[in-house]
Specification:
17 helices; Rossmann fold; Immunoglobulin-like; alpha+beta; Bactericidal permeability-increasing protein, domain 1; ten-stranded antiparallel sheet; about 35% strand
């Protein structure tokens, strides 16, 4: 649940994993419109603060008032129940996660009054916090009643929705009063199957992420099955490759709001903002893998901890080449336009000296190609292939010896026949967290056969012997004679281009990739990375980067971020390979999990853990075997237990006597991970026959294991001696030291998809210590630590076995034209690294005739004809789109541009006809 206090990650990573997983860093603030907005003031699409008063005091909440609100008509209303991470009494944070950000994104047109109550019980159970019998659940309904008294609400269109903890509340409040609601939309929720009969007549659309490690999709599926078994027709969208952040998919799909306006038992047709969903039930869309969409506003990024030397990026020359090939499509067309300084010169004619001024000089150019390569220490060469460089001299002034002339525009056109190359060397450096490019040299030469000068358009002359033809010829000849000066002036624009390149050297994708491959089952921290140091060698560029993490709970963010111990990555330890590689030190888990401990949010009631085995720790009969003192407590005593992460989590190598840092030999070899495929085709190879299909090489030793260590897990047991007691009293305190083995592997799912899997290995090693709570004097002080350890170990194993391993889809690195694809993953202490390489493009002949074709990439001429036999495939490993043309009778019959890393079949269509090239189904 949104930052489930100690997360309930199925497979748990050590609770820390579990823990670290449920926290979604969220915004602590909300932008309100007119604070005094009323139902009559026609608030302009604003979030309006309100206070509800009852016998227990004042309770803050928020109402979203549509932009064109008028009391002259009835408005549909949504009651939104937030997740566990937004509990409190600040009255605002519940609008910053889940539904709120998407309402804010659509504020100008969102047609609902939306009510955002806040759960104030921060210590109770999560799964029942919004239940129909809880104080917060009853208050949410009372707040909705108050809103309906103030605003013109359509009583026939009340929609109840919530995420995580709020998803459970949606099922509970919906079942308690099914006639109150026109529709339910629980997101990552669950409940009691016995409610199915009460809910069978309600339109319901439930959402779950298949990879959810906090609230398993099975919890939603169980409720859907119960409703359907009772005769209902609930819609269920089970989204592949999405975890607990399913709210970013559900609330970003406009079809959901379309359905809310006119709830039915079928899903609306059409495409939502987030695209098609994998949905079961009536009008189901076909399953497809997809990534959650990000809301436009997820709240401010409030730094909590900074970790130096946390990760590295290796941008090898193959990756630099892919980026360079994409650059012409990334750089705006107007980027290569501007002005240069006036050019002053002098000349002699007929014994007279004339001064010449070329004024108002403008330039424009077409960027056709970019080529870049690291070639030496601290040297990166960039070459811009320019075509039709147009130097416009607006006015030319000639003056001397009582004679003068003024000429109109003159065009100097360079690179009209073929691209002309502007080459410059740069030395990258880091300044104040920004990657800068220092110019180290420029080269620009104009070939004599690749430029021309136009005569001036219009000339005005004055003085003896000055004629238009003589002046025009002299100016054109003079400009040809100034080729070296023009080359110098053209080279002088390079410094003004460097900020444009620097502006595009952002690391958003690195931040996303670091979070995407985070080796924990749920929590993906909000990270920002900034370069700290950079080095260039003959094979590429290496960057060491620091990481800043946003506060898990922005209300508890420190005034200044804490600086943690460095992750230990240095420039010397980065492999000098030629591909794109990202590596990070998993020991940064320590300061990130410490942040959760410091904020006291890493806790969960054992009854809220998906596997029920942990519930035994709160069961009197089970506890009696561990603490004989339990038998002395009154018969009606109630028991509660919380599992708490009380210390940070560490990662260590599981191989004994292994080094904690990369050896020089390891750095020399580059820590090469196991590749998905061994095939690699260079542009020169495209002239040859493509290689036959080869099986991927097997890993000689399999993935290298590592261990997660949670040295301080705590279970606190509390008691109430009778139901009328107002407070729980602490009873016993158990501490556990847990070590759990794990490994990380790369998954190839279908032809194009890649994912990283963190799986658990072996049995946990558990140490335990127990004592009675401070201030409690037991009548029997005995504690059976062996039974306590056995129960905890059994519970932990059951938790892991009932959950899926953590799998994170890693999308291609898309430069806009070229792409690189995840190709390897390796844990080599102290770094977990992932490698991106050129994707493989496959062409399969699924017809009964030979396929004859030629190919060409951005750097090569057309290849010799290939002949692909029926049932066979050709493979090309290339980062750029591939030009393909089919031949028949020696003639070209069709030409296509094949996108990077795709799979194509040569076959007939379903309706028949001659075979053609079609993109193969994604599942292949």
């Amino acid at each position: 649940m949104a930052r489930l206090k100690l997360v309930r990650s199925s497979r748990g990573l050590l609770i820390a994993a579990a823990v670290v997983g449920s926290i979604a860093a969220n915004d602590a603030s909300v932008v309100f419109g007119q604070a005094q907005a009323t139902a009559q003031s026609n608030a302009a699409g604003t979030f309006v603060p309100r206070v509800f008063k009852d016998a227990t005091g004042e309770h803050k909440y928020v109402v979203f008032v549509p932009a064109n609100y008028s009391a002259d008509k009835k408005w549909p209303a949504i009651l939104y129940l937030h997740g566990a991470g937004e509990r409190g009494n600040d009255g605002t944070i519940q609008t910053t996660v889940g539904l709120g950000p998407f309402v804010r994104e659509r504020a100008a047109t969102f047609p609902f009054v939306v009510v955002f109550p806040q759960c104030e019980d921060t210590q109770g159970r999560i799964l029942t916090a919004w239940s129909a019998t809880s104080p917060d659940g009853r208050r949410a309904l009372a707040i909705l009643d108050a809103v309906e008294r103030e605003f013109a609400i359509d009583a026939h269109r009340r929609i109840l929705t919530g995420w995580s903890m709020g998803g459970y509340g949606t099922w509970s409040l919906g079942a308690a009063e099914p006639r109150r609601w026109s529709a339910l939309a629980p997101v990552a929720g669950g409940g009691d199957s016995a409610w199915g009969a009460k809910l069978k007549d309600l339109p319901i659309w439930a959402f779950a992420g298949i990879n959810d490690q906090v609230v398993p999709a099975q919890a939603s599926r169980q409720m859907i099955d119960a409703v359907r078994a009772a005769g209902g027709h609930a819609i269920f969208s089970e989204i592949p490759d999405v975890g607990h952040e399913i709210w970013k998919v559900a609330y970003n799909d406009n079809r959901l709001y379309q359905w809310m306006l006119a709830p039915s038992l079928t899903m609306p047709t059409g495409s939502g903002v987030a695209g098609s969903l994998a949905t079961s039930g009536p009008a189901a869309a076909p399953p497809r893998a997809r990534q959650p969409m990000q809301p436009a506003e997820e709240g401010p990024f409030i730094p909590a901890v900074t970790i130096p030397q946390a990760l590295y990026v290796r941008l090898g020359n193959e990756a630099i080449r892919a980026l360079a090939n994409s650059a012409p499509r990334l750089i705006p067309p107007n980027a290569l336009t501007g002005r240069i300084n006036d050019i002053f010169s002098s000349t002699e004619a007929s014994g007279y000296t004339f001064s010449v001024q070329f004024a108002g000089v403008r330039y424009s150019a077409q960027l056709e190609r970019v080529w870049a390569k690291a070639y030496a220490k601290d040297r990166l060469n960039i070459q811009l292939g320019l075509r039709n460089v147009n130097l416009v001299i607006s006015n030319t002034y000639v003056q001397g010896a009582g004679r003068s002339a003024v000429a109109g525009p003159i065009n100097v056109v360079i690179g009209n026949r073929y691209p002309i190359w502007l080459s410059f060397d740069v030395t990258p450096n880091v300044s104040e967290g920004q990657l800068k490019l220092q110019l180290a040299g420029t080269r620009f030469e104009i070939p004599s056969d690749n430029w021309y000068v136009t005569p001036p358009y219009g000339i005005r002359v004055s003085g003896l012997g000055m004629t238009e033809d003589r002046v025009s010829s002299a100016l054109v000849e003079g400009i040809y004679g100034q080729k070296a000066r023009i080359e110098q002036e053209a080279a002088s624009i390079v410094p003004s281009l460097l900020p444009m390149f620097e502006e595009r050297l952002r690391f958003d994708q690195v931040s996303e990739a670091a979070a995407a491959v985070w080796p924990l089952p749920v929590y993906r921290p909000r990270l920002r990375v900034l370069p700290e140091s950079v080095a260039v060698d003959e094979n590429g560029v290496s960057l060491v980067m620091g990481v800043t993490a946003a506060a898990a709970d922005p209300r508890k963010a420190p005034a200044t971020p804490r600086v943690a111990r460095p992750g230990g990555i240095s420039l010397a330890s980065i492999p000098h390979d030629t591909d794109l590689r990202l590596g990070f030190a998993p020991n940064i888990l320590d300061p990130l999990s410490r942040m959760l401990v410091d904020e006291d949010i890493a806790r969960v009631n054992v009854l809220d853990i998906p596997d029920s085995t942990f519930a035994g720790i709160a069961d009197r009969k089970v506890l009696n075997d561990i603490l004989p003192d339990v038998a002395t407590l009154p018969p009606g005593t109630q028991f509660s237990a919380e599992l708490i992460l009380a210390g940070p989590v560490q990662v260590q190598d599981s191989r004994p006597n292994s080094s904690t840092g990369p050896s020089s030999e390891m750095a020399k070899k580059g820590n090469q991970p196991v590749r998905v495929t061994a095939l690699k085709v260079t542009p020169a190879d495209l002239k040859k026959k493509p290689p036959a299909k080869a099986a991927p090489p097997a890993s000689p030793s399999g993935p290298r294991p590592f261990e997660f260590v949670a040295p301080k897990l705590v279970i606190e047991v509390s008691v109430k001696e009778n139901q009328s007691a107002a407070q729980w009293k602490k009873y016993a305190h158990f501490e556990f030291d847990l070590t759990q083995g794990a490994d990380v592997t790369l998954l190839q799912r279908g032809f194009t998809e890649r994912a990283i899997r963190v799986g658990w290995t072996g049995k946990p090693r558990v140490k335990v210590a127990g004592r009675f709570a401070d201030g409690y004097v037991p009548k029997n002080a005995e504690i059976n630590t062996d039974k306590l350890r056995d129960l905890f170990t059994l519970s932990w194993i059951a938790w892991m076995q009932t959950a899926n391993a953590t799998q994170v889809t890693v999308p291609d690195v898309d430069f806009g034209y070229a792409k690189l694809r995840l190709d390897g993953v390796q844990w080599s202490p102290p770094v977990l690294s992932i490698l991106f390489d050129q994707p493989t493009l496959e062409i399969t002949n699924a017809s009964k005739t030979d396929l004859v074709y030629e190919t060409k990439d951005i750097d090569s001429p057309w290849s010799e004809p290939y002949t692909l036999k029926p049932g066979k495939s050709h493979f090309f490993k290339i980062a750029d789109p591939l030009l393909y043309r089919r031949m028949a009778g020696g003639q070209v019959v069709q030409t296509y541009t094949l996108p990077v890393g795709a799979h194509f079949d040569f076959r007939s269509s379903a309706s028949g006809g001659p075979p053609d090239l079609y993109e193969a189904p994604a599942a292949r």
